[in-house]
Amino acid sequence: MTDASLVAAPAVSEGWALNVVDGWTVPGFTHVRDLGSGSSGRVVLAVDDLTQTKVAIKYLDRRLRGDDAFLSDFRTTAQRLSQLEDPNVVDFYDFVETPEGAAVVMERVNGVSMRWMLAAQGPTGPLAALAMLGGILAGLAAGHDRGVVHGAVRPANVIVDGAGNGRLTDFGLAPAASIAQSGPAYAAPELWNGAPASVATDLYAATAIFFECLTGRPPFSARSQSGLAKAHREAAIPVEEVPGPLRDLIARGLAKDPAERPKTAADMLGAVEEAAVAAYGLSWEAQGRSRLTELAAQTAERPEPKPSRITTPRGNPISQPVRSSRSRLVAALVAGVVIIGGVLGAAVVHASQDEDAPRPDPSPAGSGSPAPASPGATPGATLADKVSKATAETPGASFSYRRSGCCGGPAWAQGSFRIVQGAAPSYSMTVSASTKALRKRTRAVLVGGSAYVQAGKRWQNASLAGGGRGYAALAGQVRAGSAAGNVAALLQATTSLQEAGGIYRGTVPVSALTQSPELTQLASAVKAKQVQFALRLDRNGLPVQIRIKVGQGGRSQLLQTSYSNWGKAGSINAPQ
Predict the structure, then answer these.
(1) DSSP states of 514-548 as a string?
(2) pLDDT tens, 156-215?
(3) Is 557 helix (H, G, I), strand (E, B) or coil?
(4) Which PROSITE patterns match (predicted)?
(5) Residues of each annotated binding site
(6) Which CATH superfamily is domain 112-319 in?
(7) What is the pTM of this model?
(8) Burial of 177 per CB tally in 10 Å (0-12, 13-18, 19+)
(9) Which CATH number fits domain 360-564: 1.20.1330.10, 2.30.29.30, 2.50.20.20, 3.40.50.300?
(10) Residue 236 binned pLDDT confidence (cut-offs 50, 70, 90)
(11) What is the sign, positive or negative, of the torsion defined by CA atoms of 242, 245, 249, 255?
């Protein structure tokens, strides 16, 4: 098995030894089974002891743990990527680092890797290939917008889930010096010349995968790495091997000169959509995703191929990379561990709007158990007061949000909000969901009881009263689930509160949630009797991350919200 076994996989080595890395395991999780290993480390399936959520944990190997430059980059990008929420990126929850070891905790995805699919099925056909390329580019665009380059785009790092989504893993798990050698079939010419990974190299690699989906093989081959490097630099682009309407996409994406490739992933995605509509009609994406879903199901029934062996610059054999990543399971799920960075890094980082965001203090608010409350008060009452005061004095922030679980399906949003005394907070966001009608990322503004949804150049006004459907209702659900007021309400009502490593974990009876009618309503929908949460605060008592689980088992929802840029959100008004 490879690292891409974040995907659903049959049990292997049920009796595997727990000494994953020098005897160290991430506290707060129960290991279920070994999922295999790859060039960056060993992956296990685990269950979060707090929420009973299945996750994948990758224990980084000694090579990465001993690379100071890699670790420095990895930590630096963590804060930026903590805000990355996108349906085409596998959620990265935490980077956990102690003197005994280092690991990343990430979303466990039900699906198969593109490497597995291509090995089992061969060419996917043009519609599925276009849908796959669209998913990769959407995921890259989300990362690039945060100033993060992937650096290791290859079939092993693309997971096809059960809905036919192509989802990227492993932003930044390739040390800069080994990017070309560890993924030679997808490495742009400039990487072989020693240039750093960039937006242009990510687009080149995405195009190479697209070519492989169309033809069953990468665009260039050779018997040695030096020969492959020469082919990438000098060989003619084999555009004649793909359907005519798609040749221009291949020619531009595999251009030898990075300046001749599309400038951004969003630009290339626009070109893909144009070419697809012109060649295959308006339903191309639905048909392509349907075909990917079918191929993924067929692939899952076949054995996964063993990773190929390649050679590092020092001559050491390593597995063809198959990794996995993305932002956010609140570090709370890792009790008693020093959390450094919090989120997956990347090989190349540029300045971003989050650079000045408040950073979690090494010993955050209440780094020990919360101060004793007055007689009769709940365990979190003192901390709740601190949070309420901090958010009242700093009433606006940026946020990113993800909802998963039953009852409505996954949803994503990011934007900013401003707390309004005596009224619902105002929100400006981009929002989408997994359903076909809500899949397109759309802008929405919420002011009071009204929602404004952008349709082209116009804004449509809808009342939030009485629920409803569509983007307006979805935006209202995001506001209810991500509201900063939920933090104080949960702390105020909790009957048990534990703190470890600056992370607060608690359980709240639904009957005690009188200050949060939104969570009460959600609990009622899934017939839950209690709510669990994991929370991280900064030194001032402002929320940084919160993860809320409502319900149990198949009747549960997970709400994850990250906050940054407190105090920098301006006023939010109804669009004209």
Answers:
(1) TT-HHHHHHHHHTT-SEEEEEEEE-TTS-EEEEEE
(2) 889 998 888 899 988 877 777 677 777 899 999 999 998 999 999 999 999 999 999 999
(3) strand
(4) PROTEIN_KINASE_ATP, PROTEIN_KINASE_DOM
(5) 58
(6) Transferase(Phosphotransferase) domain 1 (1.10.510.10)
(7) 0.61
(8) middle
(9) 2.50.20.20
(10) very high
(11) positive
Instruction: Tell me the residue type at 415.
Output: G
SS (H, E, C) 232-256: HHHCCCCHHHCCHHHHHHHHHHCCC
Question: How far is it, in rounded angstroms, from Cα 529 to Cα 551?
Answer: 7
- C-alpha separations of 508 from 29, 371, 387, 489, 515 in Å: 21, 19, 17, 10, 12
How high is the mean pLDDT of the chain?
79
- Residue type at position 345: G
For residue 139, how many other CB atoms are within 10 A of its CB? 29
Query: Residue ranges per domain, the chain?
Result: 3-107, 112-319, 360-564
pLDDT value, residue 73: 80
Cα radius of gyration (the chain): 23
pLDDT tops 60 at residue 227: yes
Q: Give the CA angle between residues 247, 248, 249 to the nearest 5°.
A: 90
Query: Which CATH code fits 3-107?
Result: 3.30.200.20
Higher pLDDT: 264 or 370? It is 264
Strand partners, 44: 34, 57
Asked if 326 contacts 499 with a C-beta cutoff of 8 angstroms, the reply is no
Residue 119, H or E segment: helix 114-121
524 CB neighbour count, 10 Å cutoff: 11
State the binding site for ATP: 58
Among residues 104, 101, 66, 145, the alpha carbon closest in space to that of 323 is found at 104
pLDDT tier for residue 386 given thresholds of 50, 70 and 90: very high
